[in-house]
Write a structure and sequence with these properties.
One of its GO terms (molecular function) is DNA binding. Pfam families: GerE (PF00196). This protein has two domains: about 10-195, 2-Layer Sandwich (Beta-Lactamase), CATH 3.30.450.80; about 205-260, Arc Repressor Mutant, subunit A (Orthogonal Bundle), CATH 1.10.10. The chain has eleven helices and seven strands. A hairpin with a 7-residue loop joins strand 6 (about 145-150) and strand 7 (about 155-165). The chain is elongated, with a radius of gyration of 20 Å. The protein is of the alpha+beta class. A five-stranded antiparallel β-sheet has the order 4-1-7-6-5. It has a two-stranded antiparallel ribbon with strand order 2-3. Helix content is about 40%, strand content about 10%.
């Protein structure tokens, strides 16, 4: 589901410093979907989000859940790779364990609707991932459901239910797709407002580098950016080039996308 301005356009006019996370992302205004997302709108901390994940999983017949915000693909000097921006799980878990093509990253990128899966042999999971499920004693409940969120500015994310039966997973996808997609989108928006992004993007950007990328994200030309910042066009070009190098971006557009995904700039 798209993480667009579907909720944001309903944001309350209350002063920003008094807004809760749910207010900031537009989930509590009269015209929003607050009634549908229920207690999720009350979350203000990572632990509250984790408890909501637990309740959400149990409510639908699963033993646990995890949230992953993939961010954007990095195309620097190394091979293309992902640097996970946000991660939250109901169980003792390692984000790196799931950042593989076998864990469904490629499927998450291409999917718009929830899909069911099995953690058994032949289902594309690594040995380490299957060992994790075995350690959680999920052998009798090997099924799960992944709900993608296609957040193009900040990078894709997903909410994953695990520890369920195959019949239960298939039934949930067949009967609750709209609700699952809505809740996953709402959770992603809340997570972005509450969970700090990963600091794995490399050296921190300077204030001027951030300013140049933010104005570029708003569609400003180099000349317009230079005029607003009171510097030369060449200086703007240098700031953008340095920011791109720090982010391992291949060009300005890629640098802007990575900065937005990491929460370094907002538009």
């Amino acid at each position: 589901m798209f993480a667009s301005s579907a909720f944001g356009r309903h944001i309350s006019p209350v002063a920003p410093d008094r807004l809760r996370p749910a207010d900031r992302v537009g989930l509590t205004a009269p015209a929003s979907l607050a009634a549908l997302i229920g207690d999720l709108a009350q979350c203000e901390t990572a632990e509250a989000l984790r408890q909501w994940l637990t309740d959400h999983a149990v409510r639908h017949g699963f033993r646990g859940a995890r949230y992953m915000h993939l961010g954007h693909l990095h195309l620097g000097q190394r091979l293309p790779h992902w640097k996970l921006q946000r991660f939250l799980s109901t169980h003792p878990d390692s984000a790196n364990l799931w950042m593989t093509e076998q864990a469904g990253v490629e499927t998450i990128l291409m999917a718009f609707l929830p899909f069911a899966w099995l953690s058994g042999e032949g289902e594309g999971f690594t040995d380490a991932q299957r060992d994790w499920y075995a350690a959680q004693q999920f052998e009798d409940r090997p099924a799960g459901v992944t709900v993608p969120v296609q957040d193009h500015p900040a990078g894709p994310a997903c909410l994953i239910l695990f520890g369920g039966t195959e019949e239960g997973a298939m039934h949930l996808v067949d009967t609750q797709t709209p609700l699952l997609a809505t809740l996953a989108l709402a959770f992603h928006l809340m997570a972005k407002a509450i969970l700090p992004p990963s600091n794995s993007l490399g050296p921190a950007l300077s204030d001027r580098e951030i300013a140049c990328l933010r104005l570029a994200a708003l569609g400003e030309t180099l000349a317009e950016v230079a005029n607003k910042l009171g510097v030369s066009i060449r200086t703007v070009e240098l700031h953008v080039a340095r920011a791109s190098k720090k982010l391992n971006a291949v060009n300005k557009i890629h640098a802007v996308a990575l900065a937005i995904g990491a929460g370094l700039i907002e538009i």
